[in-house]
Amino acid sequence: MGKKNFRDVLDDGELIFHESWSREDCIIHFQDFCENNQSRYITKNLYRKEAGVADATWARYFGTFPEFRKQARELLSRGQTKILSNVAKHASVDDFKKFNERHNWGEDYLRVNKSRFKTVLFGSDFHDIEVDRFFLRVFLDTAKRVDPDIVSLVGDIFDLYEFSRYTIDPREFCPVKRIKFVHNEILAPIRENCPETQIDLIEGNHEARLIKHLADASPTMRILLSDLHGMDMRKLLGLDVYEVNYVSQADLATFTVRDTKKEIEKNYRIYYGCVLAHHFPHGRDLNYPGVNGHHHEHKVWQNFTPHFGVYEWHQLGCGHKRRAVYCDGAKWGNGFALAHIDTFTRSTIIEYFPVTDHAIIGGKWYHREDHEAI
Predict the structure, then answer these.
(1) Do 135 and 23 belong together in one domain?
(2) Are strands 275-278 and 290-292 parallel, antiparallel or unpaired?
(3) I need a surface site. Which of 104, 144, 153, 347 has the fewest CB within 10 A?
(4) Angle at 189 between CA 141 and CA 119, to 5 degrees
C-alpha cells in the first residue's frame, strides 16, 4: 500500500498511513475518536478498523497502543494507577475502622480493692466447644475455690473455625452453638463462681477474626446475626451480661494477615504494675513477669531485671482438647496458671498447673471421668 498524506480520504476500506501527522496530531485524532465513542472500550483493533488509521501512524511516536492511550490521557499512568489502587485498598478496610470503638471496652467493669496481696487466674485458648471438658471443670472449680481478684482469659476463648482458613463444609457450620457455649459454659460459671471478680478477655487472633467478619458482613456472619436476632458485638462476646472487660488495642483496618498479626500483638494488659498478660509470646520481650497463650504448649523462661529481680514468663498450655477435626493437637499441653502478687514490693510468683488425666491444685486431686474422655 502506498503512503498517503493527511488529506487523503478513506473511501475503499484500506488503512491510511498519515505520514505528515505529528505526535500532537495523533493524540488529537485519538481523543476525538474516544469522545465520539464514549460508550465503547477503545481497543487497537477497534481504532484501526473504524478510524482507518494504520498502526504505523502512531506507533512511531508511542511504540505500543497502551502507551498511546496513556499519552492521550485515555489510560491512567502508572503513577495514577498506583494512587487509585492505594485509594481502593484503604477504602476496602473503612468498615473495619468502625470497630476500633472496642478499644474503649477494656475498663467497663474494673473491680478495685485495697488489699496488698492479689491473685490472678490466667487461662487461654479454650476454643469454645473444642474445650477439654476435664480442663474446664478443673479451671472453673479452681476459680471458685481461689476466688481470685482477676480472671484473665488470654485470648481465643472463641474458636469459630467457620471463619478460619480451614476448608470446612458449610453444612457443618455451628457459630450460634459455639457462641452460646462460651456464654453458658464458660463466662456464666466464672461469673457465678466469682461474683466480685474482675473478668478480662484479651483479644486473640480468633476474636479478631470474628470481629473482622462482622465488619465485612460476610455471608456466614449475616446468617449468624440473623440466628441471634441482631446481636451486636458486645452481646456476641458476652461483655455486658457477664461484666467482662474486652482488652484490645489492635487496629483491624489492615491489608494482610501479617499486618493483622502485628496489630494483635498490641493487645495486652499489665496487672498491678508487675505482671503482664499477652496472647502472643511477644509479650515476653516487654520484660515483665507474665504469661502468653496462642501456641497451646507450656514453656517457661527465667529472666532478671533490676526492677523485678529474678522472674518467670510462662507460655500457657491451652484449654482446647488435644484433638480436633482440622488440626493435630497431639503435641499440645493443657494447663493454666495462678499469679500471686505483692503489690507493695511488686514481687510475683506464678504457679503453673498442667492438666492431663489428672490435676493437682492446692492439694486437691482431680481425675478425668469417663464422660470427659477425649
Answers:
(1) no
(2) parallel
(3) 104
(4) 55
